Amino acid sequence: MIKINDISADAPADLEKSAAKDLTKEYVDRLGELQSILTAQKKYSVLVILQGMDGSGKDGATANVFKECHPNSLQVVSFKKPTEEEFAQDFLWRVHKNAPPKGMIHIFNRSQYEDVIIQRVHKWIDEDRVKKRIASINAFEELLAYDNNTIIFKFMLHISKEQQEVELNQRLNEKEKFWKHNASDWREREHWDEYMRCYEDVLNQSSIPWTVVPVDQRWYRDYVIAKAMVEKLETLDLAYPPLQK
Amino acid sequence: MIKINDISADAPADLEKSAAKDLTKEYVDRLGELQSILTAQKKYSVLVILQGMDGSGKDGATANVFKECHPNSLQVVSFKKPTEEEFAQDFLWRVHKNAPPKGMIHIFNRSQYEDVIIQRVHKWIDEDRVKKRIASINAFEELLAYDNNTIIFKFMLHISKEQQEVELNQRLNEKEKFWKHNASDWREREHWDEYMRCYEDVLNQSSIPWTVVPVDQRWYRDYVIAKAMVEKLETLDLAYPPLQK
């Protein structure tokens, strides 16, 4: 049973930053190599789900961890407010359309989990529907895993409420970040405890497990994500295919 | 009037490799900065068309030139043999679906031009249809340019027939490249002169101009593409937007 409030958003005190950064560089390079094999082999697909509060660093993680991946086989899917067309469908419709084909890594910047988090926080859906949706998500992810060899990574970017304030303030003060400012982020922040409760529920009810990533130090975020991905992918039977004459 | 046979596929003799590589690094870094502004400003979209014979280095150019671009705002679209669904539509249908929205860079790895090159070489379409298709492509590209502020870069990766043989042979001899081998590439090579004639026609009949990129030396390919993109983008009124309260 995961309790978010028991998990620190800080890097562990006994991990040295410069050593971690060196290791991260190695993992990031290796991830690029493993992606080349994935692309050539076309046996597996990879889905990376990045969830977290505003300012938790989803964009930064994407830029840093996948630095050595080839753009041909990497696609980011950013789930925003549903369009009218999407809203007229079940909540998984637009998600399923964006599942990764074999040989590809897809990064979901936000995901199906918004539909059981933000919607639940604001009571746009009732608790019965939340329960059914979580079951549907589990069934959907299992389908991808068994029927398309999709390796699913789920990262919950865990930021402290204090650090979020720092991050959101940067968007008010730094010219390069103005465009990321959204007044609604500050309003959502008022529902912090309710967000954490909904995240906690998701973490505990998922059949495919989550990695909770402490992100108050950005170098530790990148380290945890890159390490988790490489360690998992190294367990697979990845290999360049033989020559097809 | 462009004559392909008059253009060398080699780097110019008076350009020093190490100096060019240093400049390329600067252009690649700057392209990453310009992309950040494009994303923030959401005024322009960018379309990069990479066309060239097999082995001309479309994948390598993509990996190297866009190294500092953020994956959130970069998407590669690889046009392969049309699917049954695509084939039941006009040839621009699948292309239009993949036009870049504002704030995004889309790279077309092959493009609408295949439909007036490979199809013309094999006489799958007659000359009247070729003529109409080239006019349709011109109208389509002009539409993107005036109606969605799409900045269109068209790079014809110009490889010599000798160098192509070297590249295709690598796919038969290097384990990491086996998956790129395709017996049909060798068969297409037999139509070299006819391909060049069709490319030349496209280069001369396009309303939005092409850059012919000599690619026998890969470092020169990256230099030309990165330089052309940065120089053009620097002429635009790119600027981070003000804070929206």
TrEMBL record, chains A, B:
A single GO molecular function term of this UniProt record: polyphosphate kinase activity
Keyword Signal among record annotations: no
Q: What family does the Swiss-Prot or TrEMBL record give for this protein?
A: Belongs to the polyphosphate kinase 2 (PPK2) family. Class I subfamily.
Species assigned in the record: Haliscomenobacter hydrossis (strain ATCC 27775 / DSM 1100 / LMG 10767 / O)
Q: Does the keyword Kinase apply?
A: yes
Question: SUPFAM superfamilies, from UniProt?
Answer: P-loop containing nucleoside triphosphate hydrolases
Name the record gives this protein: Polyphosphate:nucleotide phosphotransferase, PPK2 family
Ranges for domain Polyphosphate kinase-2-related: 19-235
| Keywords, ordered alphabetically | Kinase, Transferase
List the GO biological process terms. polyphosphate metabolic process
Cite the source lineage: Bacteria, Pseudomonadati, Bacteroidota, Saprospiria, Saprospirales
